[in-house]
């Protein structure tokens, strides 16, 4: 499952998974977002696996940078 949030609050909603990728380790997804107006926004996405484990808000410390698992914030500016 993939969910998206369009703000800093935890207003998560489901994204649509691409059916062509079913059974693959990586899945493409889409979500429609219409900003309420111009300004700066933060988009976030998180995945949850079949065991119910979801990506954490912050990644665990990892000196080598492998297996990054945290939610990444994507700043967007709407004109």
Explain how this protein is built.
The chain has 79 residues and is mostly beta strands. Helices cover 0% and strands 32% of the residues. The chain is built from no helices and six strands. The strands form two sheets. The protein has a four-stranded antiparallel β-sheet with strand order 2-1-5-6, with no helix packed on it. It is globular and about 35 Å long. It starts with a strand and ends with a strand. The mean pLDDT is 89.
Detail the poorly predicted runs.
none
Number of strands: 6
- Give the helices and strands as they follow along the chain: EEEEEE
The spatial strand order of the largest sheet comes to 2-1-5-6
| Main sheet: strands, sense, barrel | 4 strands, antiparallel
Q: Helix- and strand-based class?
A: mainly beta
Estimated helix fraction: under 10%
Question: What is the global morphology?
Answer: globular
Number of helices: 0
Termini distance?
31 Å
What is the radius of gyration computed over CA atoms, rounded to a whole number of angstroms?
14 Å
Q: How large a portion of the residues is in β-strands, by DSSP E?
A: 25-35%
What's the overall average pLDDT, rounded? 89
Short overview:
This protein is mostly beta strands and 79 residues long.
